[in-house]
Amino acid sequence: MSKESLTTIELEMAVLVRRITSIASNRKDDSLVRSAYLLLHQISVEETAGVKTLSNELQLDISTVSRQAASLEQKGYVERVPSPHDKRAYFYRITEIGLKELTQYKKLRLEKISKLLHDWEEDEQQNFGQLLKKFNYAIKDLSS
């Protein structure tokens, strides 16, 4: 990788993180915080998921996942389901209310992203999505 490319990527990543942080801290209209959104999304994908699985997938410590899942449970977005293999253990499953909230929140996010990329060509949007996905996997692999 050229030094010029690396320097550009490093700076643009810092700018991106700063701008996203700024937007996130100024928004009062979002009912789900990013961490709750990702946790709720992962539970919906897995159908039922335990704290350890969620911790591994989201690269968070178990206490953080437990705390966030308890918050989602208090809101009625998830419910505990006993493990069929170990009655002492349990999994989380998304509720109808949780699925509705997740769907609405995702719709708002997609609308905002659509506005940001409205003047991009379709191939630029596809390339950006693929490169972003590749980059996220690289980050996950690095920290595993």
Structure, described:
With 144 residues, the protein is mostly helical. The protein has two domains: 1-30; 32-143, Winged helix-like DNA-binding domain superfamily/Winged helix DNA-binding domain (Arc Repressor Mutant, subunit A, Orthogonal Bundle), CATH 1.10.10. It is built from six helices and three strands; from the N terminus they run H-H-E-H-H-E-E-H-H. The protein has helices at residues 3-26, 34-46, 51-58, 62-74, 96-116, 122-143; strands at 48-49, 78-82, 90-94. A three-stranded antiparallel beta sheet has the order 1-3-2. A hairpin with a 7-residue loop joins strand 2 (78-82) and strand 3. Helix 2 packs across helix 4 and helix 3 packs across helix 4 (62-74). The radius of gyration is 18 Å and the shape is globular. The model has no long low-confidence stretch (mean pLDDT 89).
Short description:
This protein is mostly helical.
* Termini gap: 23 Å
Unreliable sequence segments? none
Radius of gyration: 18 Å
Secondary-structure element order, N to C: HHEHHEEHH
How many helical stretches?
Answer: 6
The CATH architecture category of the largest domain equals Orthogonal Bundle
CATH superfamily label of the largest domain: Winged helix-like DNA-binding domain superfamily/Winged helix DNA-binding domain
Tally of domains: 2
Q: How would you state the average pLDDT, rounded? A: 89
Report strand order across the widest sheet: 1-3-2
Q: In what range is the share of β-strand residues?
A: 5-15%
Largest sheet: 3 strands, antiparallel
CATH class of the largest domain: Mainly Alpha
- Give the overall silhouette: globular
Looking at the structure, the CATH topology of the largest domain is Arc Repressor Mutant, subunit A
Tally of DSSP β-strands: 3
Estimated helix fraction: over 70%
Q: Given the helix and strand composition, which structural class is it?
A: mainly alpha
